[in-house]
Design a protein that fits this description.
- By secondary structure, the protein is α+β, with helices and mostly antiparallel strands.
- It has 37 helices and 55 strands.
- The strands form 14 sheets. Strands 14, 15, 16, 17 and 18 form a five-stranded antiparallel β-sheet that branches.
- α12 (838-853) runs antiparallel to α14 (867-877).
- Residues 173-192, 1170-1208 are annotated as: Disordered.
- Residues 698-917 form the ELP1 alpha-solenoid domain.
- Residues 1192-1203 have a biased composition (Basic residues).
Length: 1324
């Protein structure tokens, strides 16, 4: 679905050959030199003319040649031929840089056209009998095929060596007697046509004994053997043209163009002309093999027709008419597939440049040109595959260019003969009634008009176009912008097609210096348009022939494909709320003054806004990737960040989100035709084969759904969600589910389909899909971050699913009339709650069942479904076991039996159970049911209410479920039974080793023996001795118990508590003081010793204190040395790791682009290497196996407390070790006590040294940890910045006054002046 548009036409005066005898001399042959862009023409006067074409272009890569900058025409001397001899064929030989000429007398001439030579030379290289009809060089130029006037075919090399000579037809006796005589005149004939690879060539030859029948013959290049022959056909022409790709061979037969295969079989055909007197000449394929052109000659005019093949149909895309006496001929450019060059008998040359444009308009209407017909297809109504269509418009002659006004559905067509036709179509909603119809469109009543180019509607009744007219000197042409005003004299009947009664008047005509590349209407001004001239300059045209340049919209190169879009107002970011898009031939997509993409193949503009502003740009790249770009990103300049310059990337797990930014088009070379705006959200592409495909990008679909939800069009949004398989939760989550609760009633009212609502209800889940599933496609922000949490608290902590279902359920009851379908939908909301409200649903079923049993009137029963249907619906939505348990939970055995039967359970399993329950008392039945359903609280209530006879069952229930003890104490009022419950609770706590709580529980029920046992098990000696006092034990028993407790506490490492028992209950002073010394309670031990005045004990305390102080001094000095070593090692490790990271940074990008297996293998190789590994790691399959990895992990966990030099986690292990060396609270308390004791016993020097060493150790440890943490957060380890002395000086003043150093004695604190703490030797 694309049209071939004439982009520009060149026919300047310097392309007109100055023939020596214009009255009698005409052009008869032509040849082309593609290397130097030279044309050679041979005239009937046997003269050779050369014209050099230098087509100006903007750049070497652009094909927008808009003017001929230089031409040189040379009139050569007449060739020295015999009298009566004439040139019949001419070809340019690139290897010889000469023309190879054949004459009617049979001479073969080599004419040197080298411009560097002083004079051209001519050489006779051969002569053939009967004259030369045609010369055809092979594609590689190595061979020449010559057809003579007597029907002989000669194939020779370019060195004039004859390879073989063959007659074109088998001569019989009759044909031999009728051969041409020696004086017959030889005229030019159809040449041979070579296949693109040069292995075969085809010729049309006449049949013996027949004047009308001809046949196609295909010959082999190497041997000259006849490869295949077609069936003879009457009225077959001499023209044959082999497609360059080799797929088809085109020939002419009785106004038809027929296509043959290499084996000579006819493949297909189509009618090329409808006139009786028309003849077809000069078939030519373009170099891409997609366009076929031919000259069709009639009595009144000649025309060049161009066909295009797609979907097994030949479309006539262009027709260029010429006067009959012009005798026009043409050829395709050998390199540029869309450039066609024509010339007349008088020597007037023209160059045409075509471009492919989409036939799909802004309103998604396809207008496909096919000769004098326009095939109309509304893609927004149905995606009708070509070549089919909805209806067609018939014009008086071939259509050259079209313009469609989407606002009024008016189509204007510029025809080949220069006339203009206008047709007004009805509204799109009535087009389905026009299917299959043909509407004839009449010509406009106008003044004499030239053919329009770049035809554009600038208002509903105003057309703008470009015409090319001769200038005053009649030797050159000039471009004009012409404005036409249309008036319809007939009234338009709604729902019908109006194709007559239009008058066109020329309003203004503006001359321009340069050629026009494209014209688009201005969406913000009436009767205004943007005109792009050659080079990319953009001018704004206004009514009244005003044209002024827009520098803010200029493109850097000519862009034949140009569109303009109205966008929302972005303030000062853009001057006007419009964006002008342009695509040049090199694939650069321009937006205003910027280049958005460098590899674009096609693009379209999409809008889902009610005011028709453009919201998205759809572009396809040359790598067949489809991008959906938000206009906001273009205006804000965020396309490079969001889309990465539209360069394809390798998608892996690490960059999976990048894959959501584009769509991979599955067929190479597909192009965007257009879009369907609004809720359809469709992008229409066409493959090279011609098939139409509709793509629904997820981003556009989600934008359309959200746009409909914002406008509260719930039914439309729900239909889009169902059609495109979008998660239904987007309806709730687009603005937050709390906002949806207020709109639930409107949602149910608009949707008005209980099946759709049920489908919506079944899809709800406790997840915000806007933040998870669709986060990459559409931006989602909440105005208040804490709103959702506050709203959920305000709603009593209800979840999203339950709250929404509750709102929908209420809306169903209020908005929908009572019916069986409504009841089933309500049951669905209950069953899909989280957790399911099955009991409430079964209550509703129970009501229906009671209604059936009561035999109410039919009117009420018809409003609800049957109980069986309701149960089956509920069982379909939920697990059958869960529904059965819910029915049991209602204590309705009959309902439970019905559920079991409908869920197809085995009666042998559930009937005995239900029968057993039926014979029990009500409370016991409920107790049994609660036990089965594990509703233990209700079971406890029922068993307690059942009476004293079931107390044993109650105790058993409580013991099996300890969480019921506190509830049982509230339900049971009998004191004796309460004590039994408490004792059972104490036993349970004792069994779970909660001895303190067990002892307290035993005391509550006055069980002192078990309380004493529990306290002793918990090592609570105070509780043991207190309970022993309550039990009124003998003094000896208490003394023995105290000795036992003292030994137990000493054994478990609690000497200080054992000392208290020794002093208070055992009266053992010596043992008590020894225990205090073991506990390092120095001040308390000294106090007790002085109180009792025992010298031996005092001596033990003094000796122990001095030894402890000395050992602590040595320990802190060693710790200070360790800190220095650890810190120095850490800084070295850190610096090496940073150097290695910098070295590997260059390789990081290539590693990320590897596939997952390669990345996994690479990471496994690096994971075992530390920052300071000096050797080369050699991996093997065994070393990288999972078992080896797991073993290494186990060993690492076992040695977690050690620092392994060279290990990957050494750096963190060093920091953790330094942190672990800090003084604990117990150590500080011990230091404070020891310092006081040393002073009391007169050892001030030891106390002073101990405090100084401890202070230095603590300061160094804190400073080293702070230094390591600072170095960890930096990327560079500077040896002048991370110095421990600086950290010690900085932290000493603030730390010494803090709680960390509260253990110090102020009398031993060193003065701050000149007495800094010592630096660890290892670090220094």
């Amino acid at each position: 679905m694309k049209n071939l548009k004439l982009s520009w036409e060149l026919s300047p005066s310097n392309l007109l050959l100055q023939l020596q005898s214009p009255q009698t001399e005409v052009i008869c042959c032509a040849a082309f030199d593609m290397e130097q862009n030279r044309f050679f023409f041979a005239s009937s006067a046997n003269r050779i003319y050369t014209i050099l074409l230098l087509l100006a272009s903007e750049s070497s890569q652009s094909q927008n040649h808009h003017q001929v900058s230089t031409t040189t025409t040379v009139a050569e001397e007449a060739l020295d031929l015999d009298a009566g001899d004439s040139i019949t064929s001419m070809e340019y030989l690139m290897e010889k840089e000469s023309l190879f000429i054949g004459t009617s007398s049979g001479d073969l001439l080599l004419y040197n056209v080298d411009t560097s030579a002083a004079a051209s030379s001519m050489e006779v290289v051969g002569r053939v009998e009967g004259g030369v009809k045609s010369i055809s060089p092979s594609p590689d130029g190595d061979l020449l095929c010559i057809i003579t006037g007597i029907g002989q075919m000669l194939v020779m090399t370019h060195d004039w060596d004859l390879l073989y000579e063959t007659p074109l037809q088998d001569h019989t006796a009759d044909t031999l007697s009728g051969d041409q005589g020696p004086h017959s005149e030889c005229t030019p004939g159809g040449p041979a046509s070579w296949r693109g690879d040069g292995k075969y060539f085809a010729i049309i030859s006449s049949m013996p004994n027949s004047l009308n029948k001809k046949q196609l013959k295909i010959w082999e290049r190497d041997t000259g053997n006849l490869h295949s022959v077609s069936e003879p056909k009457a009225f077959m022409g001499e023209i044959v043209e082999w497609m360059p790709s080799g797929a088809k061979i085109a020939a002419v037969c009785d106004k038809k163009i027929i296509f043959f295969e290499k084996n000579g079989l006819e493949r297909s055909s189509f009618t090329a002309t409808e006139g009786i007197d028309a003849t077809i000449e000069n078939l030519k394929w373009n170099c891409n093999s997609d366009l076929l052109a031919a000259i069709v000659r009639t009595k009144t005019y000649d025309s060049i027709k161009i066909w295009f093949f797609s979907n097994n149909h030949w479309y006539l895309k262009q027709e260029i008419r010429h006067l009959k006496h012009d005798g026009v001929r043409f050829m395709w450019d050998p390199i540029k597939p869309l450039d066609l060059i024509s010339w007349t008998l008088e020597g007037q040359m023209k160059v045409y440049h075509f471009i492919w444009i989409s036939s799909v308009t802004d309103s998604s209407v396809a207008l496909v040109v096919d000769g004098s017909k326009i095939l109309v297809t509304p893609l927004s109504l149905s995606l009708i595959p070509p070549p089919m269509y909805l209806f067609q418009l018939q014009f008086s002659c071939s259509v050259r260019e079209t313009a469609f006004c989407s606002s009024k559905n008016i189509l204007a067509a510029s025809l080949t003969d220069g006339s203009l036709s206008v047709v007004e179509l009805p509204g799109l909603d009535t087009w389905q009634d026009l299917e299959g119809q043909v509407f004839c469109v009449e010509l406009c009543i106008t003044e004499d008009l030239a053919s329009f180019r770049h035809l554009t509607w600038v208002d509903s009744h105003v057309l703008l176009g470009v015409i090319l007219e001769p200038s005053d000197n009649k030797m050159s042409s000039r471009y004009y912008i012409q404005e036409l005003e249309l008036v319809c004299s007939e009234d338009h009947i709604p729902g019908s097609v109006t194709g007559s009664g239009f008058d066109a008047n020329v309003v203004s005509k503006l001359s321009i210096e340069s050629s026009v590349t494209a014209i688009v209407s201005n969406p913000i001004k009436k009767r205004s348009a943007f005109v792009q001239l050659n080079g990319g300059n953009i001018f704004e045209y206004e009514a009244g022939s005003f044209l002024y340049e827009r520098h803010d919209l200029r493109f850097s190169s000519s862009c034949p494909w140009m569109s303009v879009g109205l966008v929302e107002d972005f303030g000062s970011l853009i001057s006007d709320p419009i964006l002008v898009f342009g695509l040049d031939n090199s694939g650069k997509l321009h937006v205003n003054q910027n280049v958005l993409c460098n590899n674009c193949s096609s693009f379209a503009l999409y809008s889902n806004s009610t005011n028709q502003t453009i919201t998205h740009l759809i572009l396809a790249t040359k790598q067949d990737l489809l991008y959906v770009v938000e206009i906001r990103d273009i205006v804000l300049g965020q396309t490079e960040v969001e889309y990465g310059n539209f360069v394809p990337v390798i998608i892996t797990r690490k960059n999976a989100e990048e894959g959501k930014k584009f769509i991979q088009i599955w067929e190479k070379g597909s192009k965007i035709l257009g879009v369907v705006h609004g809720d359809e959200s469709a992008v229409i592409i066409q493959t090279i084969r011609g098939n139409l495909e509709s793509i629904y990008p997820r981003k556009l679909v989600l934008e359309s759904i959200v746009n409909a939800l914002v406008q509260e069009r719930f039914r439309d949004s729900l239909l889009m969600v169902r059609r495109h398989r979008i998660d239904f939760n987007i309806i709730v989550d687009h603005k937050g589910w709390q906002d949806f609760l207020t709109l639930a009633s409107e949602f149910v009212k608009q949707v008005d389909s209980l099946s759709y609502i049920s489908e919506f209800v079944c899809s709800l889940k406790n997840e915000n899909v806007m933040e998870t599933l669709y986060r990459s496609y559409i931006s989602y922000t909440r105005e208040e971050k804490g709103k959702e949490l506050k709203d959920s608290i305000a709603l009593g902590g209800q979840s999203k699913v339950n709250s929404v279902l509750l709102a929908v359920r209420k809306a169903l009851e209020d908005q929908i009339m009572e019916s069986p379908a409504r009841e089933l939908c309500i049951l669905t909301t209950l069953a899909r709650s989280d957790p399911p409200y099955l009991e409430e649903a079964l209550e509703r079923v129970k009501v229906i069942r009671e209604m059936e049993l009561s035999e109410r009137n039919d009117t009420e029963r018809k409003r609800v479904p049957s109980s069986e249907e309701s149960l089956k619906h509920l069982l379909w939505l939920s697990e059958s076991e869960a529904v059965f348990e819910a029915a049991l939970g209602l204590y309705d055995l009959n309902l439970a039996a019905i559920v079991a039967l409908n869920s197809q359970q085995d009666p042998k399993e559930f009937l005995p159970f239900l029968q057993e329950l039926e014979v029990l008392p009500i409370l016991i039945m409920r107790y049994k049911i609660d036990l089965k359903l594990r509703r233990f609280e209700k079971a406890l209530q029922h068993i307690v209410a059942a009476g004293d006879n079931y107390f044993e069952d109650c105790i058993s229930l409580i013991k099996n479920n300890p969480q019921l003890f506190s509830i049982a104490l509230q339900l049971i009022t009998d004191p004796t039974k309460k004590k039994q419950v408490l004792e059972a609770w104490g036993d349970q706590l004792s069994n779970t080793k909660c001895f303190e709580d067990a002892a307290t529980t035993y005391l509550c029920c006055n069980n002192l023996e078990k309380a004493l046992k529990s306290y002793r098990s918990s090592n609570n000696w105070g509780g043991v001795l207190s309970v022993a006092g309550l039990m009124k034990l003998q003094k000896e028993e208490i003394m023995q118990m105290a000795h036992e407790l003292c030994e137990e506490l000493q054994t478990i490492g609690k000497p200080s508590e054992a000392a208290k028992i020794a002093f208070d209950y055992c009266n053992d002073i010596k043992n008590g003081i020894n225990l205090l010394i073991s506990a390092r309670e120095w001040e308390e031990a000294l106090r007790i010793g002085l109180m009792h005045g025992i010298e031996d004990l005092l001596s033990d305390v003094k000796i122990g204190a001095v030894e402890c102080g000395t050992s602590l001094i040595v320990e802190y000095e060693e710790g200070l040395e360790k800190i220095g070593k650890y810190l120095a090692r850490y800084l070295a490790v850190r610096q090496r790791r940073l150097l290695l990271a910098a070295k590997l940074q260059a390789d990081e990008r290539s590693i990320n682009e590897l596939d997952d297996d390669a990345v996994s293998e690479a990471s496994s190789s690096f994971s075992g290497m530390s920052a300071y590994t000096t050797g080369t790691r050699k991996g093997s399959a065994a070393s990288m196996s999972s078992s080896g990895t797991s073993k290494r992990g186990i060993r690492r966990q076992k040695k977690k407390g050690k620092i392994r030099a060279g290990s990957p986690d050494e750096e963190m292990a060093l920091v953790e070790h330094m942190k672990g060396m800090c003084l604990t609270a117990g150590a500080k308390r011990e230091l404070k006590s020891l310092l006081g004791c040393l002073v009391m016993i007169g050892k001030e020097d030891i106390a002073r040294k101990l405090q100084r060493v401890g202070e230095n150790f603590q300061l160094s440890q804190i400073s080293a940890v702070k230094l390591a943490e600072d170095a960890m957060s930096c990327d560079i380890v500077d040896e002048h910045t991370f110095v421990l002395e600086d950290y010690l000086k900085k932290l000493r003043k603030e730390l010494l006054q803090s709680e960390e150093f509260s253990w110090q004695s102020k009398v031993f604190v060193a003065p701050s002046l000149g007495d800094e703490p010592a630096v660890p030797a290892a670090y220094a």
